[in-house]
Design goal:
The structure holds two protein chains of two kinds. Chain A is built from no helices and nine strands. Chain A is an all-beta fold. In chain A, strands 1, 3, 4, 7, 8 and 9 form a six-stranded mixed β-sheet that branches. In chain A, strand 5 and strand 6 form a beta hairpin. In chain B, strand 7 and strand 8 form a beta hairpin. Chains A and B meet through strand 7 and strand 8 of A and strand 5 and strand 10 of B.
Chain lengths: 110, 119
């Protein structure tokens, strides 16, 4: 259903590291920038990472992004309970001429 | 700092047209992409489309036949019209500004507004 594929859920303990994957194709991730968004319960999405790995100044360096081929990864270190949220990847799809998102990954901090 | 605020009816009848406005304050609308994104209850994000400050729109192919976006000539707000709505169009609708003047990726978002399609 979603052009970009994310795991439905991930979990880890406070203080640990977690990674969230986002898999696409050459028409989107493979040849275009990836962004990552965090949606805390009851709030609007917030931009975490742009252009594959650039972090807005207000985002802590615990959050980082990377891309390899047609996949991208969001890494969060030093997990905090406040990081519990839904995370979405997004990329422009040149074939569809559309901005496409992953289905979202729910992060649980145990 | 830019602020975006969605406004419009929270309830729309099936087959009618959904109309929303996004009011922009704190920044000029020039040289940016202005988007609409929605999120149905319990589901993921769906890009509806964007309109560039010059007035050039781009729409999601899956919605293109029903979507119209426009930019107010005062350059303080932009609008979304979605025709022939069904229950599947029930969602929280967000407006957003591109991350930078050259980016189509949303950077700043409005708080969102829930639109329910029901008779």
């Amino acid at each position: 259903q979603f052009v970009l594929t994310q795991p439905p859920s991930v979990s880890a303990a406070p203080g640990q590291k977690v990674t969230i994957s986002c898999s696409g194709s050459s028409s989107n991730i493979g040849n275009n920038y990836v962004s990552w968004y965090q949606r805390l319960p009851g709030t609007a999405p917030k931009l975490l990472i742009s252009d594959n790995n650039k972090r807005p100044s207000v985002i802590p360096d615990r959050f980082s992004g990377s891309k390899s081929g047609t996949s991208a990864t969001l890494a969060i270190t030093g997990l905090q309970t406040g990081d519990e949220a839904d995370y979405y990847c997004g990329a422009w799809d040149s074939s569809l001429s559309a901005l496409v998102f992953g289905g979202g990954t729910k992060l649980t901090v145990l | 700092q830019v602020q975006l605020q969605e406004s419009g009816p929270g309830l729309v009848k099936p087959s009618e047209t959904l109309s929303l406005t996004c009011s922009v304050s704190g920044a000029s609308m020039r040289s940016y992409y202005w988007s609409w994104i929605r999120q149905p209850p319990g589901k993921g994000l769906e890009w509806i489309g964007y309109i560039y400050y010059s007035g050039s729109p781009s729409y999601n192919p899956s919605l293109k036949s029903r979507v119209t976006m426009s930019l107010d000539t005062s350059m303080t707000q932009f609008s979304l019209r979605l025709s022939s709505v069904t229950a599947a169009d029930t969602a929280v609708y967000y407006c957003a500004r591109g991350r930078s003047s050259s980016s189509r990726h949303p950077g700043d978002w409005g708080q969102g507004t829930l639109v329910t399609v029901s008779s």
